[in-house]
Queue: 4 jobs
Job 1
Amino acid sequence: MSIHGDRAYAAFMQGFNCAQSVAVAFAPELGLSEEQVLRLASGFGAGVGRLREVCGAFGGVVLVLGALYGNTDPAGKTATYARVQELAARYKARNGGGSIVCRELLGLKQAEGSPVASARTAEYYKKRPCPQLVRLAADILEEYIRENQPAGPCGPAHGKGEDDETV
């Protein structure tokens, strides 16, 4: 467990969605206010807008990753995609579901078909792995950042670098 994992877990337990919870845990590193980060991540929750597609916790990881290491030149796409894929592999390996798809992690055959958020009740928390998944996603991202120190408060202005391939 990590400081960021604890922050993400606490945010989720306060009612924020999974993407918001992970992303807001890294607000200081992003040089943004918590309000700004919560707004940026708000649509990524519940598998992007409750569509149950890409897990919102992982979506929060991608948002932070882009802010810290993302490219500003189209030639840097490969390096960005490689980082996302590396973190997706770590998340899949450790989340108990082997997936980054929300509905698969929740054991759903399909999305509920409604944009209405589920009420946060004691029963909700018993049935959902989400609090643990936001903690795990933030833990993995913290580990990655420690291993790959970004430059500056929002990471490198990464366009085409010497390690990038042309796409």
Note: Confidence is low (pLDDT under 50) at residues 156-167.
Job 2
Amino acid sequence: MLTYALRRIMLAIPTLLFISLVIFLLLELSPGDPLGDVPLTVPPEVKEKMREALGLGQAWYIRYVLWLKQFFWIEPLHWVDQLLGTDFSRGAQRIISFQSRSPVFDVIAERIPQTLKVVGFSYLVGVLIAIPIGIISAYKQYSWFDQLGTFISMVGFSMPTFFTGVVFIIVFAVNLQWFPSIYDTTLKVTDWASFWQQVRQMAMPVTVLALYNAAQISRFMRASMLDNLGQDYVRTARAKGLSERTVVLKHVLRNSLIPVVTVIALGLPAVFGGAIITEQVFKVNGLGQLLISAIHSNDIPMVLTLTFIFAILIVVFTLIADILYGILDPRIRYD
């Protein structure tokens, strides 16, 4: 297993470098100018000095290599300095956002808690709901529970989150006035009243995202359970006198989780990336909204760093899913 993991990591390094180059070139060739919002009254020579101050006066390959150095060397050194109180990165130029003129990773660190609270909790709720629904729906195929679960899953998966989010706002925020329509990112939980206010403002975005995630995962769980319930080993286990609970939860569930692990693991990077549309609908000041604002303002360092972090997360969680295969199914070997 260790050899397989090391081999995958060594393969991931050139893959990620190629991905970063493709993202950089796409941003380089995309229309738009980071100085497009500068007033026309600004003299051309001043505008050119502003461009050089942003590092845009250098060739693209020089800026790309500089960004790689900052991402893989200077920023990690800065984290080490923060943890240990050293000064290894003193005087080194960090990745700076064109929009805020602040270090990109500092801005990302400010937005991550909001994203994890809303998107992360909704994904956890979706998984915890989807797996039991998928198990019961498969075991009681064509029952009223299965029919209801199928209907809700199809509705949740077919309706986009921007539609269900707006519907929730109209019904529960405008008409019933149960929940606030705008997420207050400045809220600090200090007592029971503020905790209840935090729960109320998280209710709608978490429900919208959990419904969407649970709809997809429950369908995979149901299909995988149905495929395993008809296998010979299940009939053998029942013939040996094992209880139905043991057969379903110990034997069938373990094998059924193997394909579902892929869906769950590959969905986790989206948690860190933020739900772009849902964060826009409910005004959650997370990473998704940060990416949208960076794209609108042509903030190349921010867009490049965020998208590359998402690519790293996808590679990492894909490796985790492959390793979990061997844990769930001992027949799988990585020799």
Note: Residues 177 and 326 are 49 Å apart (CA to CA).
Job 3
Amino acid sequence: MKIGIDTFACNSGESAVGVYVTQLLKRIPPSAAKYELFGWEYDRFAFSEAAPDMEFIPQCSVSGSAANFFWHVFKFPRFARARDWNLCFFPAAHKRLPANSPCPTVGVVHDMVPWWERRKREYLKTFARMLLPGALRRLDRVIAVSGWVKQELVEVAGIKERRIEVIPNGIDLQAFYPRSRGEESVVLIQPFSFRRPYVLYVSRIEHPVKNHCKLIEAFGIFKERTRYPHRLVLAGGDSRGAEKVKEAAASSAHRKDIFFTGHFPYTSLPELYSGADIVVIPSMYEGFGMGALEAMASGVPTACARAASLPETAEHAALYFDPKSAEDMADRMVTLTANRDIHRECRRLGLERVRDFSWDRCARHTLEIIQEMVS
């Protein structure tokens, strides 16, 4: 039995989808099934530690998302047929899918951001409506990482509910856990140095989906109200609209207290979280909300936008605000930093909430679906 795993759009294991693939590969047990990875040439060793015994087959020599899209449409069927797979698994089905497949397919949808963004642009509206939902409908089984994503798949892609299985992501509690801070005023994470206290938001710098500009505005209100020495740390690489976020920060009266890290190594994130006073997640759209789990597992009180899947993931363990209101966002920031009783209670509830999420459970359930489809 042979199963292919598509690692395209997994960002060399660095993005949330990349973390998902890495955690899944670590938990595939030795069995009669043979798993083969395929993706970009430069990803040849990206998953070698997680899956040292799996063959990696580089494909699509021309770089770029457009070239990769056409590879999936025109070359994937022949490639899959030549590999003689019994099934192909697409862990980033919302980003890369073939037009058709000679073998059964299982795909994971982490969000519907491509649809959410493009439906706002008239010239891309028809393109998105035709291709993304249709490709998702052709999957034999669909895995959604949250109930929110499942509902979107039903409403946007027209997929029957019975064909969608909700399997939440997990959290690595051996990496993300409360660390003793002591009295140190500076957190050293080479090559960075962060002066405490700081408010943290971990996300790619993207406008408007990730809502950094509204957070920067809220941070200014927070500083004016409290006169606290907090800094705002924005950890993540630049993406679409990053220049608007940088302009908003440069225009802020508190620009000296706003720090952009650029791309931040995933392995150092636990230390960054643990050093924060609070975490704020203002995103207008999250398919799951991994940042909320990472913050809560690190013992850091969290304030989230009342949007998309965030209330589903964090439940009662976070404070919520209207992501369109800088005043409302600032109110929650003031509450979490000024009221230490609420600060401690959110920390306690967060540590309780993360126990409901397990990579072992996620992998086991996912592999059961794959095996069921092969059978």
Note: Residues 119-126 have pLDDT under 50 and may be disordered.
Job 4
Amino acid sequence: MKLSIVKTASGKANVSALLFVKQSVQFSDVLTDAAEKQVESVLKGMAEGPFEDMELLEIDDKATLFVNAAKERGISSLDHLRIAAYRLAKRAEQRQIPMVSIMLADAADEQFKAIAHGLHYADYKFDAYKSKKKDNFQVTFEIIAGEHVAEFKKIAEEVAVEQTAIMLTRNMVNTSSADLTPADFVENAKTIVKYTPGLSIKVRDMKQLEKEGFMGIVTVGKGSSRPPFMITLSYDGTKNAKRGERTSADHLVLVGKGLCFDTGGLCLKTPKTMPEMISDMAGAATALAAIQAIATLKLPLKVSAVLCLAENAIGNQSVLPGEIFTAKNGKTVMVDNTDAEGRLALSDGLAEAGLIGATHIVDIATLTGAIVRALGFAVAGFFSNDDPLALNIINSGEACCEKFWSMPLEEEYADEIKDKFADLKNTGSSAPAIIAALFLKEFVPADTAWAHLDIAGTAFVPKKWKYSEYGATGFGVQTLIELARRMSNPTSISADQCSYALQK
């Protein structure tokens, strides 16, 4: 897919595309009187049945695709545009149309950004393991931008960076665990750092983790023949600020769960659900991709990412139910269930975030099946100890067409993670997603704003969903980038605004 952003139509396009909502064409006020009557008739036919969405018809002697930009239920107007653009791009590829023009001179910046994302999503395919690969037919989309050419070109560049990050996440998550071990993940991260100016990396192996007391990752990963690692990525965007420009004093740290495969350990998972555990490193892949994009965009904010990498496998050194270890922050933990391992690994990531001076921590993880049962694959649940951060996540997600639902850190359940012998245990009997968040909260450094994003349902889908086929979605990448963008240019949010927004 290629974007050509121009002021006026070149006349070279093979097909024009008109986006419509109900019986109203969007972003196009240049039709002739005769064409407007034709379009009116077509849209009436769309509503009553003779014509169908994506039908190719002659308007003003020009082949025209009509694209319904309000077809799905329950999504925002921006997401409607994304999906419409995705379907348009898929249809243009299917019909092998070399050039399609889209009139967007009347579109707002955020509307164009949504459409550009939708067009990019249609380009993605994962065929690394197919013996026969098909080349994508390249379609050029001529965006008629009117007076917005400069703004739209800048937005298109940002969208390309974000989509590169999303593609990185999807490719990593879709890769077989045999080909993406913790060591392979480390090599991928090193390569990314090599080609991303401003990004640095520190890698701890098994011996260093043991020596420094990061025993959560060690406990989870010690049963595998493929040893665990912890990666700390650092980027100081305040150095990119223009002279005299005020920069944020915040330090955002992203903590990603990176279980390159999760058998459940000795508390073995069922065969039916286990193949999809290739996706249990989606949190780490998302954090890695997000910080790469943040550095590439040169956002003026200090950002780090801590990736907790391990395999939860069965071996003669596997953690035993009932085993007790001492976490990095000094608390002792009894492993009640070896399949509740992600929170053990994340305890080290949260501790590392504190050691490197985080003011704000966002951990992201495919953590609980409970959040999938509660919210499905369209909405991610999140927990936070800080209302301004929570509202920022919701707003960032909305801007990126990613839905987050604020869940309660219900202290009434906190006693369930107390253990008879150790300070804590890693499971409880009530509200599993909340219990997991309460466990993580025990490792959040004092006086630090924190949010835990549980993307177990949204990171990997079992069937076609919006602009994703089966497999990885890249969910969360854009929200983290947008969060960093907003934090680099903060606005004051009152406690009343936060409380109202979260209750709403």
Note: The chain has 14 helices and 20 strands.
